[in-house]
Amino acid sequence: MAKPGSCAAVLLLLLGFxxxxxxxxxxxxxxxxxxxxxxxxxxxxxxxWEILEGDPxxxxxxxxxKKDVRMLRFIQEVNTTTRSCALxxxxxxTEYIVHVQSISMEGSSPPSEPVLFRTPKESxxxxxxxxxxxxxxxxxxxxxxxxxELIIIVVVLIMWAGVIVLFCRQYDIIKDNEPNNNKDxxxxxxxxxxxxxxxxxxxxxxx
Length: 207
Description:
Elements: H1 4-27, E1 33-38, E2 45-50, E3 59-66, E4 72-78, E5 84-87, E6 95-103, E7 115-118, H2 122-128, H3 136-192
Antiparallel strand pairs: 1-2, 2-5, 3-4, 3-6, 6-7
Organism: Cottoperca gobio (Frogmouth)
Membrane topology: Single-pass membrane protein
Subcellular location: Membrane; Secreted
């Protein structure tokens, strides 16, 4: 027959185990929900997720892994309420597996369901882009090119205007000097001509 003291000790241990399990269950975080990969580019992507309302989440942890490759990339951030994270430096035409975990003061949640996605090839991305689609980066480059072209055109026009003004000044100077040149030519021609004898017959010498 069991002693009363031993029964009491067993009951206390059982109650303590149940209370610890209850506290652990209350503080255990739920895994993130609706994990989605968006904005998939050749070398980058964006992962988003949701959490259960009321979970004391202070951060997140993301594991990124190439399919059929053991090497992992681990991304962790705390003291944040964001529900998205950029994945960078990806390889084109490659499959990746992503898990997301929530972080609280007590620890981490179980990992989310794995999400598989594939980055496109560079050629596929260019082919899928509409001819009328213009990104902000392309727009900025086009604006810079247009600004440079306008500066070059303005400089060329200013240079041509200067050449025209200089030509007009030289032309005016040459035109103003033409009457003086004509007078000098006439004067020189009159000085070089033979003087004429006065009319009246030949001079006779007195004998």
